[in-house]
Amino acid sequence: MGRSRYHIILIAAWLSGTLFLVDTRGEARAGELIEALAIHKNGHYDFTIIMLVDAPRDFIYRLLTDYDNLTQLSPNIVSSHLLKSGNDEHSLVEINSYHCIAWFCRRMHQIQKVQELGNGILRTTDVPQKGHVLAANSLWRIHRQGDKTRIEYQSTLQIDFWVPPLLGPMLLKNKFRSSLIDTINRLETMANPDQAD
To answer: Which secondary structure element, helix H or strand E, spans residue 109, and what is its range?
Structure first.
């Protein structure tokens, strides 16, 4: 990226009051986003997240697999429904969400195949042509780390709607990061209701 283009992006970000610090790495404390990487290339978004949540692993796993109540994890999720129970194969989950990035808002509808692979590992794949996502898959790893839970998440996403050019991908990355921090706070509040403010 040329230096003048870089300065234009910084100025535009400053004028809009938006910070887009996406790559965060640091020493983990309770309830911390350890790493959040978001890469936009050729219409695809690749996300890598590592977070530490001050809550027991089994509790976190139950919340993440309570498919009829995913609304409790994020204010962006409007509704979620288990369409088909998995047993030995996969579950089908419908998720409706609403996202705003600066002035640009969009409703999203997704049907996901969810596989619970054991040992705290979940794999999701969006069903093509059943929602607003052209292609998406993710892998969740949910581990104990002392008395806390470490969540590692990797995802590739290709959306079928327009995102404003230039700042759009950066604003999307920033929104993604702030949503993750909100999710960590929600998980910890549900796990420790006595300590909630």
So the answer is: strand 104-118
Whether 91 has a pLDDT exceeding 60, the answer reads: yes
pLDDT in tens, 119-153: 999 999 988 777 667 788 999 999 999 989 999 99
Q: How confident is the model at residue 154 (pLDDT cuts 50, 70, 90)?
A: very high
Length of the chain: 197
> What one-character DSSP code corresponds to residue 75?
T
Report d(CA 48, CA 4) in Å as an integer.
29
Q: What is the pLDDT of residues 39-52, one digit of tens each?
A: 878 778 888 889 89
Distance CA 112, CA 27 (A): 33
Backbone angles phi, psi at 179, to 5 degrees: -65, -40
Whether residue 151 contacts residue 142, with contact meaning beta carbons closer than 8 Å, is answered with yes
Predicted pLDDT of residue 168 = 59
First vs last Cα of the chain: how many Å apart?
A: 44
What is the assigned CATH class of domain 23-195?
A: alpha beta
**148-159 vs 133-145, strand pairing mode:** antiparallel
Q: What is the chain's percent helix, strand, coil content, to nearest 5?
A: 30, 45, 30
All structural domains of the chain with their residue ranges: 23-195
CB atoms within 10 A of CB 97: 19
3-class SS of residue 67: helix
